[in-house]
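To whoever is covering the structure queue this week,

Two jobs came back overnight. Logging them here so there's a record in the thread.

Job A:
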Amino acid sequence: MTTTTNERDLAVARDVGTRIHLALWERRITKAHMAEQIGVSGSTFSKKLRGTVPLTVDELMTIARVLDVDAGDLLMGRARRDSNPKPSDP
């Protein structure tokens, strides 16, 4: 099965939404509060977390500020060290 650009974009958007949702939960911040912070309704914010409505750069930056995280961590996930690193190629 071939994955289209739209399918990949949606998958990435969902991953970002999942990271935001987890950070909200960890910090006990409600989705309603975050929706207010970025100036959208609760239902729109939920759609943004699901990836069906895109986040703007400004919204992502505000979310990162409120969550006190790096926006890059929300986009790409936290860098994790591999427990079994492979030797680098010569």
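Job B:
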Amino acid sequence: MRSCLLACSDAGRLHEDPSPAPRYSYLSNGEKATFRANWPPIVDWQADAIARFKTYNPKRAKPTVLALPSAPHYIYINDEDFVVRQMRAFLGLPLSPD
């Protein structure tokens, strides 16, 4: 494998809006406090994981990171054309099967 791809839906959004509020409206007050206390390490872990993935290592496949900061988790359903275009470009396939 010459290259590998990581597409991150929340790559920028977690740091732009680090508030966990929209993610836990159904939790009790105690559970919300626990979630808030654990949220910053989750944000930091994700940023670190993406940075590590972006780092080139000659012993591994060349990384390609496609950051989608405003994309929902199910972008492959919501914007199938975009996902297919990006996958075809990454794989070196023509954008049109013609």
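Note for Job B: The first helix runs from residue 13 to 16.

Please reply-all if you pick these up so we don't duplicate work.
Q.
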